[in-house]
Design a protein that fits this description.
It is a single chain. Helix content is 57%, strand content 9%. Strands 3-2-1-4-5-10-9-6-7-8 form a 10-stranded mixed β-sheet, with helices on both faces. Helix 3 packs across helix 4 and helix 18 packs across helix 21. Pfam families: AA_permease. It is a multi-pass membrane protein.
């Protein structure tokens, strides 16, 4: 089967067909039939504003199209090809179907406009008994004849006709600009803001007139038939857009000084009365409408055929059928037949204003997507994105935002319908093309750039911790990830809202191809676990033969926040006396080199119980760790799984010290140095002969998490026994703060 994506089928057209196809569509039906209506309803200045606003959409789109076209080899399918190859088949397919419909409906719009050119002849038929002639008597035969010619002759017919049509079009405009009227001869002062009473508002007029500006992308549809699309598209498209904008400004000015507002509003062909030779205007209208109709009916089938070749549609047989091209000419025969059916349906509607507003919504969605692609490509800074013609990202962003804004201003209802329609199309295309995602790649680039910029910004900010803005940046190391999820859950809670967390699964051994392969598999398992638990933890694996080398590497890792990590976390099982604790203790000195806080989690079979109560223990020899323990407790209960939790600060002192310690703690709370309410504090007396662990075991046996201060000196002296002996309580978090945090 031949393919329009094959270079052998290209016609070898140059830049001129792109320019003429675009300009003949821009200076078409709306210019001749509805611009007098626009000036009369809005006034001259507002008509200028409408042209400028319309081009705030079309010029950025033209620049984006030109840019993307010079970055890659643009083939058959025009705008659809650009979208699909930049955004992926899934996004491109859904927008492409919408684009195809707008192109097919445009054909109907131009045929209806072509029929309007014959209205001046209707009075000549009245003596023969023909009154109130229905335009469908013209539009339907014209549609059938146009379809037959295009299917028979194809693109060659369109291009040959194009030059004749453009010539007639320019003669019509010259006749109009040279012409004078009695109104213009008697005009004393230009009324820049005058408009008819009770006229249509700005956005309704824009909705009706906007299809005129959409012609800027008409030439792109010939991409598969161009010799050098990367050159012809930018030059032809940009020239057509700028030239068309200037002509519309001049036409608006000429209309305002040549006829009264009432005449402009009541006579769709008022340009006939202004022109040097009146019949030249209907002839120009007929020529412009016919050329635009030819352009649309040539482009639309090629878009549909390209969509089918990408197998976007739900049925493989349908894709194959619509992708068929004639071997001798390369014309998309079956796609042309479907386009003909769509065209006839909208020709039967017959109302040019209704069809114009439908086209406007479809084109707004398409143009907004193209501008968004260009902006995201710029922002993602993909090394493969190196266009010869370069737009500015801010221009593309303005185009995308203007599309969305204008859609809502024109009609909220139609906008929601259009967006829902696009969403349904996307779901359909994604369902039938599950392995053709392209959106993911471009957004990965965007996220990468955002992350990079944020990290650079954070690194340039003050490096010394400002204590009243402290937040944890914890890195957790565990070799027992797939045995116990306690440590992973804990860092997940810390990273949920207030902190940053990196979780490293430790693999004992030396780095080799085999261990690296196993590490990749473990990382994939970790990512699945993380996705299932909806965590915001950065995951990684590390292969190392000893705990010392692991710690030496970990303490030098940057945080995912862009700054340095400020907290190290390790985990052991309370029920296993040989779980690597001694190795940890032996490396406490190394851990403290970088000034990180240290957390050691003693995991229990209860796995944090019902997550309703956290106990924090203060002892006479350990007030330095109080603030960090309290802060972490509040950070943990910020997670939804702990939303019913209560924090209790338990201070245990000998009987003789109890009252003085009470005053001390209340004073710390009052001055803001201890960030907890006095209602959450319990003071417990302890006899001199009672071991502290005994008090904790008896008091916190129902707590879901118990937080205890850790003094490195005691850990080194007593060894791992400092972590054991808490058999009657659940999970225990031991905390050592490297620097006291006085946080109000």
């Amino acid at each position: 089967m031949a393919s329009s994506l094959d270079k052998s089928n290209q016609k070898g057209f140059g830049t001129a067909p792109v320019f003429f196809t675009s300009i003949s569509t821009i200076l078409g039906a709306i210019l001749f039939l509805r611009f007098g209506y626009a000036v009369s309803n809005l006034g001259l200045l507002s008509a200028f504003s409408m042209v400028l606003v319309g081009h705030l959409v079309t010029i950025p789109t033209a620049m984006a199209i030109s840019e993307i076209a010079t970055n890659q080899k643009v083939q058959g399918g025009g705008v659809y090809y650009i979208i699909s190859r930049s955004f992926g088949i899934t996004i491109g397919g859904s927008i492409g179907i919408s684009l195809y419909l707008s192109q097919a409906i445009s054909t109907a719009f131009y045929i209806i406009a072509f029929a309007e050119a014959f209205r001046p002849l209707f009075p000549l038929l009245e003596p023969y008994g023909l009154h109130d002639i229905n335009l469908r008597f013209i539009t339907i035969p014209c549609t059938i004849g146009l379809i037959a010619l295009v299917i028979y002759k194809g693109a060659d017919l369109g291009i040959r006709t194009l030059y004749i049509v453009v010539g007639i079009l320019f003669l019509s405009l010259i006749s109009f600009f040279v012409g004078t009227t009695e109104f213009s001869e008697n005009l004393v002062k230009i009324d820049w803001s005058g408009h008819i009473e009770g006229g249509d508002n700005f956005f309704k007029v824009l909705a009706i007139c906007f299809p005129a500006f959409t012609g800027i992308a008409a030439g792109v549809g010939l991409s598969g038939d161009l010799k050098s699309p990367e050159r012809s598209i930018p030059i032809g498209t940009m020239l057509a857009g700028i030239f068309g904008m200037v002509v519309y400004m001049l036409v608006a000015y000429k209309l305002s000084i040549s006829a009264s507002l009432e005449d402009l509003a009541s006579d769709p062909l008022i340009m006939t009365d202004i022109s040097v030779w009146g019949p030249m205007i209907p002839i120009g209208l007929a020529a412009a409408a016919l050329s635009s109709a030819i352009g649309s009916i040539l482009v639309a089938p090629r878009t549909l055929q390209a969509i089918a070749e990408d197998e976007v549609l739900p049925n493989s047989s349908l894709n194959q059928w619509l992708g068929f091209v004639k071997k001798d000419s390369g014309e998309p025969l079956h796609a042309s037949l479907i386009t003909s059916v769509v065209t006839i349906i909208f020709v039967l509607i017959g109302d040019i204003d209704i069809v114009a507003q439908i086209i406007t919504m479809f084109f707004m969605v398409t143009y907004g997507a193209i501008c968004l692609i260009s902006f995201l490509e710029h922002f993602a800074s993909d090394p493969a994105y190196r266009p010869v013609f370069k737009s500015k990202p801010i221009i593309s962003l303005v185009g995308a935002l203007m599309c969305l804004y204008l859609m809502f201003k024109i009609s909220v209802t139609y906008t929601f319908i259009a967006l829902v329609f696009m969403a349904l199309l996307y779901q359909m295309v994604r369902h039938f093309t599950p392995n053709k995602e392209g959106l993911k790649a471009i957004f990965q680039g965007v996220i990468f750039q955002l992350s990079r910029q944020f990290q650079i910004f954070l690194q340039k900010t003050e490096k010394d911790d400002v204590e009243d803005h402290w937040r944890p940046a914890v890195v957790c190391v565990s070799r027992n990830t797939f045995k116990r999820f306690s440590a992973f859950n804990l860092v997940k809670w810390i990273a949920h809202k207030y902190g940053f967390a990196t979780y490293i699964h430790l693999i004992d051994g030396y780095l080799s191809k085999e261990t690296n392969k196993n590490a990749q598999k473990d990382l994939e398992r970790l990512i699945k676990i993380s996705e299932a638990s909806d965590s915001k933890v950065y995951l990684d694996t590390m292969i190392s033969p000893s705990m010392t080398s692991v710690i030496a590497q970990v303490i030098q890792l940057p945080s995912v926040a862009g700054k340095e990590n400020n907290m190290l976390m390790f985990e052991f099982s309370k029920n296993n006396s040989d779980d690597g604790l001694k190795q940890l203790i032996d490396n406490f000195k190394l851990m403290s080199v970088t000034g990180n806080d240290i957390c050691v989690l003693g995991s229990d079979e209860r796995n944090f119980g019902y997550k309703t109560e956290i106990h924090i223990w203060l002892t006479p020899k350990d007030l330095e760790n109080a603030n960090l323990m309290i802060l972490l407790a509040f950070i943990i209960i910020g997670h939804p799984e702990w939303n019913k939790a209560k924090i209790t600060l338990l201070a245990c002192f000998p009987d003789a010290e109890l009252e003085s310690r009470r005053e001390q703690i209340l004073n710390l709370i009052k001055t803001g140095r201890l960030p907890i309410s006095k209602n959450n504090v319990r003071l417990i007396s302890r006899a001199d002969n009672v071991d502290m662990k005994t008090v904790i075991n008896s008091t916190s046996q129902d707590a879901d998490l118990t937080i205890i201060g850790l003094r490195l000196e005691a850990a080194k002296k007593i060894n791992e026994q400092v972590f054991y002996g808490y058999d009657d309580i659940g999970d225990v978090l031991f905390i050592h703060t490297a620097k006291r945090k006085d946080i109000s």
